[in-house]
Amino acid sequence: MSAALAEFFGTTILILLGDGVVANGVLKQTKGHESGWIVITAGWACAVAVAVYCTMAVSGAHLNPAVTLGLASIGRFPWSDVPAYLAAQMAGAFVGAVLVWLSYLPHWRMTADPAAKLAVFCTAPAVRHPVSNLFTEVIGTALLVLGVLAILAPVNLPPGSGFEKALAPALVGLLVLAIGLSLGGSTGYAINPARDLGPRLAHAVLPIAGKAGSDWGYAWIPVLGPALGGVIGAQLYRAFWL
User: Fold this and answer.
1) pTM of the predicted structure, to 2 decimals
2) Residue 164: what pLDDT?
3) Which domain holds residue 57?
4) pLDDT at residue 213 in the model
5) CATH of the domain at 150
6) Which of 178, 187, 101, 174 is nearest to 138 (CA)?
7) Residue 227 CA, distance from chain mean position
């Protein structure tokens, strides 16, 4: 399997499980209806861990344009490979969202609230304030990339010990859980441009009963914020930890 194909499949898995737990929590007459924020954040954390386990050995398990851009900005990933990774991540996110739509097909018509349907696919702020929403996404993604680089640092997971392969994906999932629990309440913690934009595109084109608009006026924030945050987090790691 090529690295770009691994990124596609890994991001598909990430969105299938991540958006899937949101669908289970917010759509009507699901087994997990109204199960709450803890279930959603735990589900996303597990989604990240599973996707990383599936692809880390092939592509490095970026699964996120913010990670790809951050690593490229500090020379840990070739810029020539960035376009292929970003395209694969975006395509995988779109396909993952389509699979969630299919998995919960009867529940869209049962759910009256268009905002709940949109929430399955993409993020929205609790309080719409573009400047603070953008800062929240920058901060959360900077912490994500900084944390991933620190977790994978040889001082924490010595190469050849076996721990780096066994523990790294679970620890990255734990990091995402911490970000969701602590910082996710403001914007829904996209912290991944593909995670938000790919499924938002799917929401726009899929025949979902009773849906409203895809909130394109907000869509730039979960794209630009994580992209900036990923570079900032990588630069902080290089400046203070390398």
Assistant:
1) 0.97
2) 77
3) 3-240
4) 97
5) 1.20.1080.10
6) 187
7) 12
Q: Which helix (H) or strand (E) holds 148?
A: helix 130-151
Could you give the number of structural domains in the chain? Answer: 1
Closest by CA to 172, choosing from 146, 198, 137, is: 146
Angle of CA points 111, 117, 123, to nearest 5°: 150
Cα 83 vs. chain centroid, distance in angstroms? Answer: 18
Tallying the residues shown for the chain, one arrives at: 242
- Name the pLDDT band for 162 (thresholds 50, 70, 90): confident
The C-alpha atoms of residue 214 and residue 206 are separated, in whole angstroms, by: 11
Closest residue by Cα to residue 191 from 24, 40, 65, 52:
65
Q: Which residues contact 96 (CB under 8 A, 6 or more apart)?
A: 11, 12, 13, 14, 15, 16, 18, 19, 198, 199
Return phi, psi of residue 35, to 5°.
-75, -20
Query: How do residues 51-77 score in pLDDT, each as one tens digit?
Result: 999 999 999 999 999 999 999 999 999
Running DSSP on this structure, what letter comes out for residue 241? T
Tokens in use for 94? Answer: 């779109």
Residue range 194-215: average pLDDT? 98
Task: Please provide the DSSP assignment of 197-229 as one string.
Answer: HHHHHHHHHS--TT-----TTTTTHHHHHHHHH
